[in-house]
Amino acid sequence: MLLVRPFDIEIGQHKVMLNIVDARERGLNPGDRVRVRAKGAATTALLDTTTQMVKPGEIGIFTEALKDLNNPVDVDILPAPRPASICHIKSLMDNEKLSEDQIRTIVQDIVDNNLSDIELAAYVTASYIHNMPSEEVVWLTKAMIETGERIHFDTHPVMDKHSIGGVPGNKVSLLIVPIVAAAGLLIPKTSSRAITGAGGTADLMEVLAPVEFSAAEIKEITEKVGGVIVWGGATNIAPADDKLIKAEYALSIDPYSQMLASIMAKKGAVGADAVVVDMPVGPGTKLPTADDGRTLAKDLIDLGDKLGIRVECAMTFGGSPVGRTIGPALEVREALTLLENKPGPNSLREKSLSLAGILLEMGGVAGRGEGYAAAEEILSSGKAHAKLMEIIAAQGGNPNVKSEDIVIGENCEEILAPAGGYVVAFYNKRLVELARMAGAPSDQKAGVIIHKKMGERVKKGEPLITICSSSDWELDSAVRDAKRSMPIVVEGMLLERYPRITEL
Ligand SMILES: O=P(O)(O)OC[C@H]1O[C@H](OP(=O)(O)O)[C@H](O)[C@@H]1O
Ligand SMILES: Nc1ccnc(=O)[nH]1
User: What residues are designated binding site?
Assistant: First the structure.
């Protein structure tokens, strides 16, 4: 047995450290995979060696592995075999078919932390290059559900909403969940953190309340107040999902087959009966054309049928951000403003009411074609606001929070229009890059405020965007980058003049 030396350091992977003498005695080298066994728990980790940091007879264990092992006093280790899924990942790279068993092995290895970051990145990259056939996506989704916990509600229908993401500022879940819950339906909403964006719904909700709950707690809170907005990655619900998202986030990609499975596994695991999926379409989003949107809608509906979930898809406008803010705190402030029935952006209000309306119709509390108006009544009467405050309280946040209480990064700088004219080009992806450079989403207070959208008139020197951050150096680098390659292009209506040659 080796005496545990806890290293309270989060390094984003499962790691342990042995003194070089012990490592040599066991025939282990740095980078080897080892199985670490404690009383009643085991995990796989990668090995580092040292001459100084741990003594012979000791083992240094970093935070991630310590959590899995329940903070043990002593452990033993064995060399771990090369995971079988590496071979299947290679098959995926070669665009070969995978069997149900092979897919299940990959998912189990991901859940058990048997894959290194390099191997995970290889899986995610291979999935990005080759879409899986639909039967493999069904196996993948089922494996992701079955390797975690599931929630079974006694009351039905259980409603849910999910966005494929890809459009900046998509804070609509903060309005939709309370509207649906205020209508008397259950909506246990699990979200991921940002994948390609600068703030996922889990990042946003975390500004208002804790988002890390167990499956049992999600069930209890949903039954009490009608809904939750929690981080899927904190639960044991579809536990492979968040591990994959970490690799996807680093690469800013969302592979098609993986996206289908990621969304539907979370919906299947919470026992959803009916789901609306928001699919933002437009240049620079995950769905460049309406045809791409139709293909995805068909794939999502088919996958839902195979899982026993009624899915409806809504193709939404993704050409420019939803509302005028990007980044956790800024987005939360904007969503609260609308819930408080103060003036706010129409794009956010209309999109939230449309999607909530579909859910009210699917859940049978509004007639066909009457969902939008029903959602609007719940929003304007203040019931949606009151419901969000109840959800915040149930999740342990401050139920008296107001939009003006939300603190934004103290370092802000405006990017001004270099000329007068009209906004003729608007680059969503650049805005997201700038918000990420400013520190979002890990810096909750960082982000971008958009002053001018596509087609709007601008005077020379007027602000186009404001970038905010908690750190002055991150702000500086984002501002420099914005000026080097503007995310919003302004031109006069007169683009070029061709004078008569004789008059030159
Ligand atoms: O970062 P990108 O790729 O834009 O999208 C990821 C976001 O999309 C989904 O939204 P929601 O949970 O339905 O609101 C995810 O849960 C996550 O919040
Ligand atoms: N791949 C994904 C896209 C959007 N949301 C998710 O949870 N997962």
Answer: 166, 192-197, 201, 262, 286
